[in-house]
Amino acid sequence: MSEQIYIGVDLGGTNIKVGICDVEGKLLHTYEGPTGNENGADFVLDRIAEYVRALVRESAIEWEQVAGIGAGIAGFLDIPEGVIKLSPNLGWRNVPVKKILEEKLGKQVVIDNDANVAALGEAWSGAGAGIPNIVCYTLGTGVGGGIIVGGRLYQGYNGMAGELGHMTVVPDLEAIACGCGRMGCLETVSSATGIIRMANDAVERGDATVLASVEKMTAKDVFDAAKADDEVALRIIQRAAFYLGKSMSLVSVVINPQRFIIGGGVSRAGDILFDMIRENFSKLAPERAQEGVDIVPATLGNDAGVVGAAGLILRG
Predict the structure, then answer these.
(1) DSSP per residue, 300-313
(2) How many folded domains does the chain comprise?
(3) Distance between start and end Cα atoms, the chain
(4) Contacts by residues 164-169 (CB-CB < 8 Å, ≥ 24 positions apart)
(5) Domain check: are 308 and 220 in the same one?
(6) pLDDT at 187
């Protein structure tokens, strides 16, 4: 029999991306199309099955080579049962994705949240390849995370392991409410949303900054201003980086990873962000916990989700 291959599904609110990976995590072929979520969950699951079959038809792969299908989905999941308990992005509740897709495709299906599968992708064939213990941060609208221990995805007791954005790191007097309902979460200061909020607050206070002339603020605007030595923007980025470094120092004495990998849109800020994070981590983590540890950018970009989803079958 020919070599087995693994299919990953990256289910987004706007688009669905599916891909084929080999046993080494190399992405061989992809297929992408609209989600059509306005038509409901049944329609979307039909579409996933359609895209998976189209992917295989377009490739040189035989259907019999497909070992299984993994899917990365944003939301709160019952991973063993393969049920989406709640996906705010999709507006789904209690959808038995695993059962439905297995019936449609006749293959094993495994699901996990999008941040976990991105971490698994980086561990399999990205910035964490060959390193058994890593922790990944995804800095975007929120802060996601994933933990790889001994080369395998660590999900914890009920799938909540790796929710790094909801570590309480901001002191009470500085804390604001997070979308999760708690106060002082990392996500409130180190996500794109948190950076934009801090910038808008500074403008509203009348702080002297070039950001006052920016309409529809983005995190990139804040980073660009910081790179141009705008003091207010620098202060905002330093605050975001401080709490990222602080969170990593806490993670380092629990997980003791060899590498922290940072992905997501905010990570594209480059050295200005990474240098600050490294500096804070080195100040806050115990010396032994930071020995031999590095902090690096993710390398798979938009392919991390589909590669990691495929890896759920082999490495999850």
Answers:
(1) SGGGHHHHHHHHHH
(2) 2
(3) 24
(4) 164/135, 164/137, 164/247, 164/251, 165/190, 165/191, 167/247, 167/250, 169/243, 169/246, 169/247, 169/250
(5) no
(6) 95
Distant-in-sequence, close-in-space partners of 134: CB < 8 Å, separation ≥ 6: 119, 122, 123, 128, 147, 148, 257, 258, 259, 260, 261
Range of the domain at 174: 130-298
Q: What are the φ/ψ torsions at residue 82 (nearest 5 degrees)?
A: 75, 35
Do 147 and 257 reside in the same domain of the chain?
yes
- CA dist., res. 140 & res. 264, Å (int): 5
- Whether 201 and 229 map to the same domain: the answer is yes
C-alpha torsion angle, residues 91, 95, 98, 103 (rounded to 10): -120
Give whole-number Cα distances, 217 to 1, 127, 141, 233, 282, in Å. 55, 30, 13, 12, 31
189 and 259 belong to one structural domain: yes
Answer whether 0.70 is exceeded by the pTM.
yes
Looking at the structure, tell me whether residues 46 and 108 fall in a common domain.
Answer: yes
Rounded distance, CA 142 to CA 270, Å?
A: 18
Return the closest-CA partner of residue 219 out of 241, 197, 204. Answer: 197
Structure tokens at 173: 């007097």
Q: Which pLDDT value is given to residue 274?
A: 98
Which residues, listed in sequence order, are joined to residue 263 by a DSSP beta bridge? Answer: 138
Q: What is the pLDDT of residues 125-156, one digit of tens each?
A: 999 999 999 999 999 888 999 999 999 999 88
What is the residue type of 67?
A: A
* Dihedral angle, C-alpha 163, 190, 216, 92, nearest 10 °: 0
The region, left, alpha or beta by phi > 0 then psi within -120 to 50, assigned to residue 144 is: beta
pLDDT at 65: 95
Asked if residue 202 and residue 291 are part of one domain, the reply reads yes
pLDDT of residue 316: 64
Domain identity same for 290 and 307 = no
Q: Identify the DSSP state of 177.
A: B
- List the strands of the sheet with 76-78, edge to edge: 76-78, 83-87, 92-95
Q: Which segments in the chain show pLDDT lower than 50? A: 1
